[in-house]
Amino acid sequence: MPSTQNKSLQITTPSDAEIRITRSFDAPRMMVWDAYTRPELVKRWLGQMPGWSWAVCEMDVRKGGRYRWAWRGPDGAELALGGEYLEVIPGERLVSTERYDQQWYEGDAVGTVEFTEVGGRTTLVTTLRYASKDVRDAVLQSPATSGMESGYTALDELLASTPAA
Amino acid sequence: MQPSGYGNLSDGRLDATFAALADPTRRAILARLASGEASVRELTEPFAMSQAAVSKHLKVLERAGLISRAQDAQRRPRRLEAAPLAEANEWLERYRQFWEDSYGRLDALLAEMKQTAAKRPRAGRRATTKRKGR
Question: Do B5 and A47 touch (CB under 8 A)?
């Protein structure tokens, strides 16, 4: 079982219906913003799961603008999602809705990405808000009730102690 | 953004698995069963709750396919079923891995952008300002 703990990437659950992903980058925030909002740059880092390639990467980054991302995978499989930009403050804040074509949970999620720069390093805080706690818990096991640092840890420990069945 | 749509997930079951796992008592029960099968009475012991309450949790776990009952008719001990748990964990691992991998590539891209900007510091600024005014 690979370790799910990582020094730099943090995944937390700040409220009942949210998941938060925090990560710092060694670059000024406008540069990170560019990498995050220009399709030709986004295509170079986002996604790219083994065996999958970009099919569509369209982003109209302005309030009310829409985006669509699609990847094609093995055996004609497709992963596609899109949504609308609700708030666009260059270098600071990007809020958008998110819905998968093949979505297995209810409602649109709303993603907020906050960019903060300290000493030339930019911290990206991505908060995904789901329609309800049930949906969030379905997406990610809730660690909030257990007081554990991460739900992943609980699962990992559990599986590590599971005898081969 | 997460890789929820790909792969052939048995969606309903995964849903049930996560719902079952969301409760700390049920996770504790699973952790106990991970060290071997146990009867309802044995499972109730560590908790400050009734056997009936524990039985309710066991039903949820059973419905999610996370535990099963062994043949022993008298004790009817519960045992852990590893497969759904492994499936759930695989999904979580993919979620984390997705971001880990993506951000790793973003690191590399940003390093490259910094190098380019160092050579042509003004070009980067202009591009940014132009987009801002759009």
Answer: no
